[in-house]
Amino acid sequence: MAHYAVRESPPLRGEIPISTSKNAVLPIMCGALLTGGDVRIEKAPDLTDVRTLTALLRSCGCGVKREKDALIFNAESVNGAGDEESARRMRASVLILGPLLSRLGQARIALPGGCAIGQRPIDQHLKGMSALGAKIRMDHGGVTLTGHLRGATIYLDMPSVGATENLLMAATLAKGTTRIENAAKEPEVVDLANFLSAMGAHISGAGTSTITIEGVSSLHGVSWTPIEDRVEAGTMACACAITGGELLLRGARAEHLRSLLFKLSESGVHIKDTPTGLMVFGRAKQPFEIRTMVYPGFPTDLQAPMMAVACRTPGTSVFLETIFENRFMHAAELMRLGAHIRVENRVAVVEGTPQLTGAHVRATDLRAGAALILAGLCAEGETIVDDAGGHIDRGYDRIEEKLSAVGGLVRRIERTA
Ligand code: UD1
Question: pTM value?
Answer without folding.
Answer: 0.97
